[in-house]
Amino acid sequence: MDILLTEAERRTRDQVRAIVDGRIMPRSGELDETTEIAWDVAAMLAREGIIGLVIPAAYGGAESELSASKICLAREEIARGSANIDLLFVMQGLGSYPIVAAGSEEQKRRFLPPIARAEKLAAYALTEPNAGSDLSMIETTAQHRGDTYVLNGSKIYISNAGVASTYTVFASTDRSAGTRGLSAFIVEADTPGFRVVQQFDLMAPHCIGELEFRDCAIPAANLLGAPGEGFKIAMRTFDVYRPSVGAAAIGMGQAALEEAVRHASTRVQFGKALIENQAIQFKIADMAMELDAARMLVLRAARMRDAGAPQVAKEASMAKLFATEAASRAIDESVQIHGGAGVRRGARVERLYRQIRALRIYEGASEIQRLIIARHVRKELGG
Length: 383
Description:
- The protein is an alpha+beta fold.
- It folds into 3 domains: 2-116, Acyl-CoA dehydrogenase/oxidase, N-terminal domain (Butyryl-Coa Dehydrogenase, subunit A, domain 1, Orthogonal Bundle), CATH 1.10.540; 122-228, Beta Barrel (Butyryl-CoA Dehydrogenase, subunit A, domain 2), CATH 2.40.110; 231-380, Butyryl-CoA Dehydrogenase, subunit A, domain 3, CATH 1.20.140.10.
- The chain has 12 helices and 10 strands.
- It has helices at residues 7-24, 28-32, 39-47, 68-81, 83-94, 97-102, 105-116, 230-266, 278-306, 313-338, 348-355, 366-380; strands at 122-125, 141-145, 148-159, 166-172, 182-188, 194-199, 208-219, 223-224, 268-269, 272-273.
């Protein structure tokens, strides 16, 4: 990949890789089997400027303009070491990007610096019990009353629920307008009428839960952009962070490939190392090939976004779809190569097997990515 990266991108990748290898990977078992936030790691990533990759330099971050390419490179390395630290990193970006993209100067100066320093965590509250892929089904409402908006409704499967201080919340300001009636708001955790209903236990633990808004009055100044711009803000956010889901998947797949080669090189069966077996070599070759192909798709989507392409939805969807599916196959093959040791609780590949599954669902399930791709291809080819 080095030949395709700029010098600045290589420096970012190498910096994150060194941090992951030295400070995160040795603790991956501890970090990934808990719902607790690793505040010490968050503080370290902030000191090293890694969390700053998701916040503009003018508001405490590391880059004059956000680079989707650098975010993807960082996510791949972080996810190779720890899925929960990857989520910590990306939620600082996903939860704050609507403020970066649509916030006023006052909103940016107030809310972004503490996120860049990891003093406060961010969350992105879009999904509801009856609204996942179909955002026109969002039922949470925001009624404009004088100098406030009053929110009523609920959100579900929200990462950082209960630990975030700053929530980007999408609600309908005009139920009759469907997605054109969606608006985006900043909600602070201590706002009266806002509460965390419950937190969930997932097959791969991390901090996630359900939120409720009951006559939750927030200042009208916490509206992001104009009323009705919520859907556009959500799509702009996905253009940046959807390819990075693919990058995280590649990191997990790379970890599985490394474990497969390590195990196959030391495990002796029938008088020779497993890796000398042609069937095992074929598996390793396919894993490496598909992960590299996924990297190309992720880099293309990120580079297009960074270059200011007016539309990257198709490329972002291709990147997320192919990378998450390829990484899932790689991890499954790694478990197979490990045999019984691969399904033993606590084994790294067993943990990866559980962690990768969610990436084919969140930020648009694989089926939704295929629909997006097909819609754009049909339009391009006049179908």
